[in-house]
Amino acid sequence: MELPIPNHLRGILHPFGDNNSELQLKGIIKCSCGSDEFEIGFVGNDNEFQEIQAIKVLRVGDEYFLLIKNICSNFKMEHLIFDNDYHGWNGYICGGDNREAKRPKTKIWKCDSCEKSIHRMRVGLVSEGKEDFIEEAGDEFIKESWVDAFGWITIETHCINCEKRNPEWISYETM
Ligand SMILES: [Zn+2]
Ligand SMILES: [Zn+2]
């Protein structure tokens, strides 16, 4: 069985649980050094976080940004987890509307309960599957890149200091 692990997350997104298939995946983010503890950098809208407990897309003029990157707490290696202009159906297939735009400054996420910044992260992906991709995406894409055109991403954060879990810190449809 093929799993929809996007190419940029190969080696750091480790599937867990027994509900994984071509159409859905849940996994833990782990650095190549073995650590699963990160600071989380993000470009997104956290204005309403207290009410909705979620990070939304940040609108700047006509441009929309949602970018997540993890910084390993061991050796500060950075891992790009998601960028709405490159990943998922719209980002990957449609090319993103503002790949060239200057990214707003990245903020470091601080737990909304204890204000500490080190977290574990789980990522969930929903995919339309390989056959659907081959039919819909067009000839300029190689078949193997179906994994990059997922339709939905969720990100769960888990503060290692106070144990707060937020199962849908991000829940974002990409198509
Ligand atoms: Zn590391
Ligand atoms: Zn906390």
Structure in words:
The chain has 175 residues and is mainly beta. It has helices at 49-52, 88-93, 130-136, and strands spanning 13-15, 24-29, 38-43, 58-60, 63-65, 67-72, 78-83, 107-108, 118-126, 152-159, 165-173. The strands form two sheets. Strands 1, 2, 3, 6, 7, 8, 9, 10 and 11 form a nine-stranded antiparallel β-sheet that branches. Strands 4-5 form a two-stranded antiparallel sheet. Bound molecules: zinc ion (2 copies). Residues 31, 33, 35, 72, 74-75, 77 line the site of one zinc ion. One zinc ion (ZN) is lined by residues 31, 33, 35, 72, 74-75, 77.
Produce the secondary structure layout.
Layout (H helix, E strand, L loop, with lengths): L12 E3 L8 E6 L8 E6 L5 H4 L5 E3 L2 E3 L1 E6 L5 E6 L4 H6 L13 E2 L9 E9 L3 H7 L15 E8 L5 E9 L2
Antiparallel strand pairs: 1-2, 2-9, 3-6, 3-8, 3-9, 4-5, 6-7, 9-10, 10-11
Bound molecules: zinc ion (2 copies).
